[in-house]
Amino acid sequence: MSEEQARSGSLAHRVPDLGALELLLAVARLGSLGSAARELGITQPAASSRLRSMERQLGVALVDRSPRGSRLTDAGALVTDWARQVVAAAEVFDAGAQALRATRDSRLRVAASMTIAEYLLPGWLLALRAGRPDTAVSLLAGNSAKVAELLLAGEADLGFVEGLTVPTGLDSAVIAHDRLTVVTAPAHPWARRP
């Protein structure tokens, strides 16, 4: 284990979780543990337990509790200032992650073999539109080898082909099976076959 890994692993044990920090900020803002608990949607006993746990973890008292409300200790005021920065950084992190997901989900490049593109993909695209109306889809149609080529070159995000073999470098999952039926004229020699 590297020194950095050791530091980051132990950091999780020394720094309170975001929920506890949000609780402390709510107590500081509202002046009441009960009001903070209500705002965060937790019970007062759960809030009190979370706050005591954070105080044990940090080794300092953060809040003076009284019948008239809750007041931050000097250490609590200092920790609250730090907590604001941590929670703000977490909000920035969350907003960035949401933006990445939105970008990922907003564009889908699909490559499909001709039969799938003509007969199956239209229904699948309608279902996608119903579930994710903001996703823009581009379709590239070709034979199975062309679909594999587009995927391997990074020019398509998802491919659909018929066949039993998967080109090297690609993962696959079977999503449907075809039923093939041979049709002949009544006078054809195969028409008499069982």
* Number of continuous helical runs: 7
CATH class term of the largest domain: Mainly Alpha
Strand-pairing-aware structural class = alpha/beta
- Please give the domain count: 2
**What oligomeric arrangement do these chains adopt?**
single chain
What sort of overall outline do the alpha carbons produce when their principal axes are compared?
A: elongated
- Mean pLDDT reading: 87
Tally the beta strands: 5
Low-confidence stretches: none
**Spatial order of the strands forming the largest sheet:** 4-3-5
- The CATH H-level homologous superfamily of the largest domain: Winged helix-like DNA-binding domain superfamily/Winged helix DNA-binding domain
Helix content: 55-70%
Strand content: 5-15%
Distance between the termini: 69 Å
Q: Major sheet, described briefly?
A: 3 strands, parallel
Helix and strand element order: HHHHEEHEHEHE
Descriptive overview:
This protein is α/β, with parallel strands linked by helices and 194 residues long. It has two domains: 3-101, Orthogonal Bundle (Arc Repressor Mutant, subunit A); 106-194, Periplasmic binding protein-like II (D-Maltodextrin-Binding Protein, domain 2). It contains seven helices and five strands; from the N terminus they run ααααββαβαβαβ. The protein has helices at 3-14, 18-30, 33-40, 44-58, 74-106, 114-131, 144-152, and strands at residues 63-66, 69-72, 107-113, 136-142, 158-160. The strands form two sheets. It has a three-stranded parallel sheet with strand order 4-3-5, sandwiched between helices. Strands 1-2 form a two-stranded antiparallel sheet. Helix 6 (114-131) links the parallel strand 3 (107-113) and strand 4 (136-142). Helix 2 (18-30) crosses helix 3 (33-40) and helix 2 (18-30) crosses helix 5. The longest helix has 33 residues, at 74-106. The relative contact order is 0.08. The mean pLDDT is 87.
